[in-house]
Write a structure and sequence with these properties.
The chain has five helices and no strands. The chain is mostly helical. Helix 2 packs across helix 3. It is elongated, with a radius of gyration of 17 Å.
């Protein structure tokens, strides 16, 4: 039995990937926004499809950019944990 930390990390990653999590690379992360934009957009679309549709209708082609910039701005201003309870 391999009890190294690397093996433990690999086991955790394998378990997570088998149960719906996605592996990300540094290229997926937007340093300016401090977010993984595609994850945010996937979450919004999956959990609030009607509201997202209204937002897209209102802002058109700029909807994704506006949402991500606003979210990043609010996280910076209030911190992420405070936004979860608002």
């Amino acid at each position: 039995m391999n009890t190294s930390e690397k093996n433990f990390e690999s086991d955790i990653q394998a378990y997570l990937l088998e149960n719906g999590y996605y592996s990300r690379t540094s290229h997926d992360y937007d340093k300016k926004l401090c977010l993984i934009p595609q994850d945010v957009l996937n979450f919004i679309n999956a959990t609030q499809p009607q509201e997202w549709q209204k937002y897209q209708t209102q802002y058109g082609d700029d909807a994704q950019t506006k949402l991500l910039q606003r979210l990043a701005q609010q996280i910076k201003k209030h911190n992420f944990m405070n936004l979860l309870v608002i």
